[in-house]
Amino acid sequence: MEGTEAKDSESRDWDNGDSGLRQRRHRLSTFVRTLEERYHAKTLLYLLKTGVPICNWLIDYDWKESFFADMSAGLTLAVFMVPTGIAHAGICGVEPVYGLYTSIFPTFLYMIFGNSKYNALGPFAILSVLTHSIIEKIQTAEMETQIMYNNTLYKSVGTVDPASNITFITSMDDFVPIRPIHIATTVMFLSGIFHIFLGVVRADFLSCYLSEQVMSGFVVGGFVHVFFSQIGECLGIKLPPRDGPGSLLFRVQDLFERLPETQFATFLISLASLAFLTFSRHVLDPWLSSVFEFPIPYELLLASFPPPALPRFELIPSIFVTTLGITIVTVAIHLTVVKIVENKHHEPINSCHELYSLGIVGVLSSAFPVFPVTSIFARTLVGSPDKNTTQVTD
């Protein structure tokens, strides 16, 4: 009797286990069928064309009719952006070569993920100034960390005879010095993440609050900051870094206090460079434009090219809040230019997709030594219908 009951119990357990297995298999097969119905080949192709717009137009690209027009406009845009990138690298506080990389990588990636054939990404003075303020803040904190470490080391060793040849270690064992471009690329990466998040929450409605008067005042104020951030370099005066409310007024005060320290040779070189660029723009350009069909990059004669660097993502906690401000500025400028392009060429542009594009470009290009970019109307004018036909111009 007991043996029969045991067998019946085992049989019921087996049936229950087999039934549970069949239920799991049924749920799995139902889930797979749902995925197949919802995400079939046509749906995946649609998502690919929506997320990567280059797949939407490159298949039908007319190489014979469009390639040479796009190449001509692209070369003009490149010559325009290269010296601009070098100049903004100086404002940002990084090496000039990183201005070249900033003019290349984000623009190339926008060709793949961008939605407008007229927009062009590149450095912007206000973003460069904001990035430079973050770089100064991080480097100041790093210097304080090194000084604190050296003081601790000195106390542990004791008083050292000045005649002895003992050299203190200036950094911790596993401490790698932070270069300015490392901070800039980290800002680029984090702002890209913020842009994608704004696209997810559909924050493109912010463009409704960006009137022409607001943007004009914002740009003028930004260029005032740019001027006073660079005037010390032109005069050969070392001005202390200023940050926070009233920083512009303090910088003007520092400038007048140290004006007697002006390096006459540096001032003459700056004045000669400015005169050369002004003469080239207003005298040589009208004459050379009849010979060449693209502008001459006179600024390249005043630039040098150091090696590249990689980003440092462990800096994210230190730059999180400030980068959020840079993200807002970038979105404001980019959506304003998108609106201008949309009205000028009567071509509807999805602002939400532009936020996705800006975010993806920021995240991917941060793998290279670049600093934050946005869409600029002056460069966008190069991509007009009489000069280019597709995003290949970018």
TrEMBL record:
Residues 67-302, 304-384 form the SLC26A/SulP transporter domain. This is SLC26A/SulP transporter domain-containing protein. Keywords: Membrane, Transmembrane, Transmembrane helix. The lineage of its organism: Eukaryota, Metazoa, Ecdysozoa, Nematoda, Chromadorea. InterPro entries: SLC26A/SulP_dom, SLC26A/SulP_fam. GO terms for biological process: transmembrane transport. Its main location: membrane. The keyword Metal-binding does not apply. The chain crosses the membrane at residues 67-91, 97-113, 181-201, 264-284, 315-335, 355-378. GO terms for cellular component: membrane. It is found in: Membrane. It is a multi-pass membrane protein.
